[in-house]
Design a protein that fits this description.
Number of strands: 6
Oligomer: single chain
Bound molecules: flavin mononucleotide
Structural class: alpha/beta
Strand content: 15-25%
Shape: globular
Order of helices and strands: EHEEHEHHEEH
Helix content: 25-40%
Number of helices: 5
Low-confidence stretches: none
Amino acid sequence: MKIMIIFDSVFGNTEKIAKSLGSSLGAEEVKVIRVNDVKSDQLTGVQLLVVGSPTRGFRPTKPITSFLRNIPNDSLKGVKVAAFDTRITIDEKVPLILRFLSNIFGYAAKPIAEKLVEKGGELIVPPEGFIVKGSEGPLKESELERAVAWVKQIKP
Ligand SMILES: Cc1cc2nc3c(=O)[nH]c(=O)nc-3n(C[C@H](O)[C@H](O)[C@H](O)COP(=O)(O)O)c2cc1C
């Protein structure tokens, strides 16, 4: 099965998750590629597409958003898709206004999944978020293990 994991990452945390998903999938052909390095013809023949982004301002990054926008309509027909993000811990230390806005506007994984489905993809697992400590990371303990468990649900 031809699998592609496309990610963006500013501080390296989403990249770590993407690479760990890539090695856990263990298929013959898994490519883990930073969004800015994806060439337009590279999606051809992909059977499983996983897209991940840091949550920035409640949304995916600009490169991920424009990558998704530029996928031709219906070109993901017959392609299995999945989406993930990284995000901050929402606990009592986070300002109330940010907790409130995060509740309303959410995180990057859901809009990524919606866009992949809009382009024809078949969502095979609910969108998932992985937690970083502070705003730049590192990843919270055991998030890499949780990522591996998440990807097991989509293992071909
Ligand atoms: C400018 C900026 C905006 C951010 N906005 C959000 C946000 O809306 N919600 C959230 O949960 N985390 C937010 N974060 C935290 C990022 O999600 C975090 O930096 C990211 O998950 C780290 O992933 P990366 O190392 O791959 O860049 C923000 C961080 C920065 C620097």
